[in-house]
Amino acid sequence: MSVEDREKFLAGLHVGILGVDDPRNGGGPLLVPLWYSYRPGGLVTIQTGRETQKARLIRGAGRFSLCAQDETAPYRYVSVEGPVVAVEDPLPPAEREELARRYLDPDTAEAYLAANQGQLADDVLIRMRPRRWRTADFAAFAEEFEQ
To answer: Gene3D superfamilies from the xrefs (predicted)?
Structure first.
């Protein structure tokens, strides 16, 4: 993918898979799905509870990876990895609301925010600067088989 294509794709609506090194018990990385936001040229933003395993591992590693994909053909994905450049604690309410509205319709977002008000108050915002990109777009590959 071109730089423009990969940034546009990452800015699109996808559930991301966060990856962070997990040195406990000699295991592999911790991988978990989550909501995220990204604007082309900007930072990847996630939110999580300040005392979750995700947050502890990210603080320890000082970096994380995120992968977003299309789950229908022709398949595409963008994976980014980079350093944490900011942690905002507590999570700014406007950021919490923006992320909920990104993934949910207006009525559901309002209900979600109201129902999770207490839990969301324990969240932090983590910003990562993408340094390494990996991408694939299988559209051209798929076109070869459609002819």
So the answer is: Electron Transport, Fmn-binding Protein, Chain A (2.30.110.10)
